[in-house]
Amino acid sequence: MQLLSIKQPQEGTYFHRLAQINGTPALVIDCRVIRHQYLVLQSALPGVRLYYAIKALPHTEVVAALAELGAGFEIAGSGELQLLRQARVKPRDTIHTHPIKRDNDIRQALRFGCTTFVIDNTEELLKFIPYKHRVGLILRLRFRSRDAVVDLSRKFGCPPQEAYQLIALATRLGIHVKGLSFHVGSQCLCPDMHVQAINVCNRIIRQTHDLGAAPISLLDIGGGFPVAYDQDVPSIEAFSAPIVQALNRLPRYVTLAAEPGRFLVAPAGTALLSIIGKAWREGQIWYYLDDGIYGLFSGQVFDHTRYPLEVFSESPKRYPSVLAGPTCDGTDVIAENLMLPELEIGDFLVGRQMGAYTIASATRFNSLPPAQVVVLDSRRKSHDACNATGIESGGSKPPAS
Ligand SMILES: Cc1ncc(COP(=O)(O)O)c(C=O)c1O
Predict the structure, then answer these.
(1) How far does the centroid of ligand 1 lie from the alpha carbon of residue 356, in Å?
(2) If I label 395, which of 19, 89, 251, 296 is the partner at 20 to 30 A Cα–Cα?
(3) How far apart are CA 306 and CA 187, in angstroms?
(4) Does the beta carbon of 262 lie inside 6 Å of ligand 1?
(5) Could you tell me what percent of the chain has a pLDDT over 90?
(6) Does domain 58-260 have CATH number 3.20.20.10?
(7) 4-29+268-378, which class in CATH?
């Protein structure tokens, strides 16, 4: 079910003015919200170093804003190195977490200065023989959660019962496995699998220590921290509390890391869209927007997400309506079975919670250009980008976090 709000036109003034100035389709990224999310997550997970998963929203200003706060960065591919260079991120603040890499990916990351890599199987371990004096590896374990909207432990992760064998092989090869990690899935609706995974890792860390292998001194608990789209999710404090309890039972020498993506950037992203076409078909009004599931709404396909939408009208009348994207593909439909006031070509809509896995997975289908990205308040010391473009941020509010 799509969450849809029908609001008074004046409630949309702030974003409407941004849309008038910048045009649509656009994705507005508010770095104030990203900073807020980072600080909230950091205080919910004390002692855990946060490595932003760049793939969620790969943008230099986002990386720079988080770097200013002391965040680390999780790299999933060589293309992200350019963003890190542009934002002047220190290589020691990065970890390369893709479990499957080409030799060229390893070499490019090493050239950048990243020396921490994730593996989850023997073949991948063997790829590090030539670089064994330069790297520390993290072994990713598999824990499948039924409560995660996006499963990340089918395709990746070593079964926990095989961990010690792989660590022993690494030791024989002279390769240092310094840590364990897991990703129980993205958009987890409860923390149970995180807790279970930490407890299993705790046992493996202690066993490895007892068996005389080099101590495992890092645990990376991945991502999965949820945000509210079309259903309520626990507050980050409630979600994190049992995780923190489980982390507190680890040996003291273990340092802690996490790789949040969605939680940091989803609430910071607001899509600005316009109606470009309108037709009555089979008793419903079809509205054609200037972006759809091949663009900003690609997360409806790849990320299994439904974004809260807002339309603006004073009219009390409602009509069965469909919101469709601009491409010529019949599947490019954002939402149907909606009861909307009658809207007109040129009217403006807003999509909320659209910072994560939206523009990141947008395609160029039908040769349509991607939505432009408008970044607000990218540097802490700069003034608001709204004012820089001539509009006041007072009156209607910027996105709530
Ligand atoms: C290895 C890895 N780390 C971190 C993340 C970020 O996860 P989330 O957005 O759930 O925080 C992902 C998401 O795909 C991932 O694959």
Answers:
(1) 11
(2) 296
(3) 12
(4) yes
(5) 87
(6) yes
(7) mainly beta
